[in-house]
Each structure stands twice: as structure tokens, then as C-alpha cells.
Write a structure and sequence with these properties.
- The protein has about 375 residues and is α/β, with parallel strands linked by helices.
- α2 packs antiparallel against α10 and α4 packs parallel to α5.
- It is built from twelve helices and 13 strands.
- The radius of gyration is 22 Å and the shape is globular.
- The strands form three sheets. It has a seven-stranded mixed beta sheet with strand order 1-7-6-5-4-2-3, with helices on both faces. It has a four-stranded antiparallel beta sheet with strand order 10-11-13-12.
- It folds into two domains: about 120 residues, Alpha-Beta Complex (Aspartate Aminotransferase, domain 1); about 240 residues, Type I PLP-dependent aspartate aminotransferase-like (Major domain) (Aspartate Aminotransferase, domain 2).
- The chain binds ligand 0PR.
- Ligand 0PR binds next to α4.
Length: about 375
């Protein structure tokens, strides 16, 4: 650090220059994040100093968090849901399994997750010392329920289903997982980090939330498809007993106990989440999801004309295209200014069609992709 501070103008011009190096979202088809809604940005700014780590000092912000949890509970069919706003899907998944592990107290516990599970479950294995067993998928990239059943043993404490897989946007058979969890007396965590703000707003109906009696926790991220600011993840438990399992004493704070992973934590993104949920309402989200799905199908129609097929028909706004040598297609797209992604198995081109994309840049992207495919 310099002995003397730089003037504000100098610092801001450095920041502007650096910001200019970031890729604008309009060119990004590999991210599950997007520009936050303007009302979320203003709310974030308004609550910028609020620290929910000491909620007694921020009574208004703490009320907002309880209200967001209540709103999410209603969205996921459980007015009794308890939870908090995390930093994202990773923290939600960690804390869900943490609570389950503490509740069960098994000596060498294991959980069963789909092979499609997000890499946050690898972090869970490392941090929580819970063995993570991976069940293979069926031909449609949903977890194979009979393989989950086969993996259950005396040390299994819970199973995980994904409602909106990271790579394919597929929805696991959560109803079957719920039945299995009830029959085997296991916890069932649903990772809807991405799908949580897509699935309820699709015209097709999928069972994935607390309406299924076996579901014990749900992760759903406001900083992905709900237009909130980063960091905002939602973690909901079926009732308060799970949060109690995460409790530590905090004798010198304004409250006597804390259940969160972070100590000091942002009230700003919680206020942003509240603002955007209140402002958009279900109708607003239905419009956004409908538009993303139209863009997804429009892009698919266009590339199909050029003979490119999807690996699965898109269930949500994630499109995986069967292209030979996906890595080289990805880098050629990058040369033309587009950020795309890939899937592991099969090796294919993965596109996430987020609200920041427009019909116009979708068509430009499709032209570039088709051109690369025919001319290299
Ligand atoms: N669960 C699922 C199903 C996810 O898709 C993700 C992240 C997580 C959990 C973890 O969420 P956090 O990253 O909020 O902790 N899915 C994306 C991914 O890892 C996140 C992402 C977002 C990646 C923007 C890249 C990017 O530019 O692919």
C-alpha cells in the first residue's frame, strides 16, 4: 500500500479501466448470473453497511431476511420453512448437509448425490468429512433412482436431488427420491440453486419442492435467475429444528446464537432480493422465464437448420449442443468474442440462455456458431 493515498479521480479511473477488461454479459452464454435488476441495485446500495451477522443492530434488515425466507417458503410450498440467505448455492449445499450430519450423528456418514451434482458436493466431502457417493444418470441425464437405492447403506444419512442441473438444466425425479427418502428414513436435500427461479414459472409443472413430504431442505439462488445482486443464495429447511442443529453460542453479540456459516454477512444483497421479489412478483418471473425459453428454442431452431442437434431437448434455459470437438468450437467462439461452456460427459457445447441475452445477439451467436461448424 502507498504511504500517501491517491485522489478519488485517479482511483476511479483505474477502476474504470479494469472494469473495461471484464466481459460484458451480452457476450456471455456460460454463466448462471446476470445483470441485477435496477431496483435490486438501488436496494443493495441503500443497505450497503448492514451486517446480518449481528442482526440485533439491524432490526429492519433482519426483518427483511425473515420476510424473504417467508416468501421463498411460500414459493416452495412450505409456509413453515426456516432458513437464511447464504452467499450462494455452495454455502446452501454445505449448510444443508452440515445440518443433516449434525442431526444424525453417524460415525462415518455418507450421502448419495447424482453424478450430475455441482462440484460444491466435492467441497462438502472435504470440509464436512461426509463421504459423497455418486449415482449414475439415466439416458436423459436424470439420476437413476434404482442406482441411488443400491448405494444406500447403514451409514447413509441423506440423498440429494437436483432440480436444474448445472450442465444440462435437467430435473431429477424428485418425487421418486422423496418416496425413497421416506421409505429409508433419510433426509432429502434438493439443489434448486439454478432451477428454483425457473421451474415454478414454467408452463409445465414439475414436483420438486416441500409439497413432496420427503423433501427436507431446498437451495435456490436469488443471484442466479432472480435478478438479485451477488451474493444471494437461499437455504430453506422444512422446519426450525434443522437450523437449531447449526447453532453456536454468540455471548457478546446482540443475539445469543448464530446458525450461519459466515459471521459478518451482507444485508445489502438480502435487501436487493426482497426488492426484486416484491417488484417482479410471480407474473414478472413468468415473463422472464418465458422469454428465456423462447430465446432457447429460437436458438435451437436456428442451429438445427444447420444440422446441429441438442444432447437433450432443453427442459429449461440451458442448451447443450452435440458438436464434434466441443473444446475447439468453444475456443473459436471465444476468438469471435463469445463465452460458451462445455459439458463433461458427453463432451458437448453448453449454453446458458440468461435474461441478458437478446434475440439480436442470439442470432449473431447462431450465425457465428453455424459458420464455425461449416468453415472452422
Ligand atoms: N448448485 C447448482 C445446481 C449450481 O448450478 C451451482 C452453480 C451451485 C450449486 C453453486 O452455486 P454458487 O456458485 O452460487 O455457490 N452453478 C454455476 C456453475 O458452477 C455457477 C456459475 C455462475 C458459474 C456464473 C460460472 C459463472 O460465470 O457452473
Amino acid at each position: 500500500m502507498n504511504a500517501h493515498g491517491a485522489d478519488e479521480e485517479t482511483v476511479e479511473s483505474i477502476l474504470d479501466e479494469l472494469k473495461g477488461r471484464d466481459t460484458p454479459y451480452e457476450r456471455i452464454l456460460s454463466s448462471m448470473c446476470t445483470y441485477p435488476h435496477p431496483i435490486a441495485v438501488r436496494a443493495h446500495q441503500r443497505f450497503i453497511e448492514a451486517n446480518l451477522g449481528d442482526p440485533g443492530l439491524f432490526a429492519g434488515t433482519a426483518w427483511i431476511e425473515r420476510e424473504v425466507v417467508r416468501m421463498l417458503g411460500l414459493l416452495y410450498n412450505n409456509p413453515e420453512a426456516h432458513g437464511y440467505i447464504t452467499t450462494g448455492g455452495t454455502e446452501s449445499n454445505i449448510q444443508a448437509i452440515h445440518a443433516i450430519r449434525n442431526a444424525r450423528g453417524v460415525r462415518e456418514p455418507n450421502i448419495i448425490v447424482p453424478a450430475s451434482a455441482h462440484f460444491s458436493f466435492d467441497k462438502i466431502a472435504d470440509i464436512l468429512r461426509v463421504k459423497v457417493k455418486k449415482a449414475d444418470l439415466d439416458p436423459d441425464f436424470r439420476v437413476d433412482i434404482s442406482l441411488v437405492e443400491d448405494l444406500i447403506d447403514d451409514n447413509t444419512i441423506g440423498i440429494v436431488g437436483i432440480a436444474g442441473t448445472t450442465e444440462f438444466g435437467q430435473i431429477d425425479p424428485i418425487k421418486d427420491l422423496s418416496d425413497l427418502a421416506l421409505a429409508a428414513n433419510l433426509f432429502l436435500h434438493v439443489d434448486a440453486a439454478f432451477g428454483g427461479f425457473v421451474i415454478p414459472f414454467l408452463p409445465e409443472k414439475y414436483e420438486f419442492d416441500f409439497a413432496l413430504p420427503g423433501v427436507t431442505s431446498v437451495a435456490a439462488d436469488p443471484h442466479k435467475m432472480s435478478f438479485s445482486t451477488i451474493p444471494a443464495g437461499g437455504l430453506l429447511f422444512r422446519d426450525h429444528s434443522y437450523m437449531d442443529r447449526l447453532s453456536v453460542d454468540t455471548p457478546y453479540l446482540s443475539v445469543t446464537a448464530q446458525q450461519t456459516l459466515s459471521g459478518t454477512r451482507s444485508g445489502a444483497s438480502v435487501a436487493a432480493t426482497y426488492a426484486v421479489l416484491r417488484h417482479l412478483g410471480r407474473e414478472g418471473y413468468e415473463r422472464i422465464v418465458q422469454r428465456c425459453m423462447e430465446l432457447t428454442r429460437g436458438l435451437l431452431d436456428r442451429v438445427r437448420e444447420a444440422g446441429i442437434e441438442p444432447v437433450i431437448e432443453p427442459v429449461m434455459n440451458v442448451l447443450v449442443l452435440d458438436v464434434p470437438d466441443a473444446d475447439s468450437v468453444r475456443s473459436k467462439l471465444k476468438e469471435r468474442g463469445w463465452e460458451a461452456s462445455i459439458t463433461r460427459d458427453p463432451h458437448a457445447l453448453r449454453l446458458v440462455i440468461m435474461p441478458h441475452l437478446t434475440h439480436e445477439n442470439m442470432f449473431r451467436f447462431a450465425d457465428d456458431l453455424c459458420d464455425i461448424m461449416s468453415h472452422g
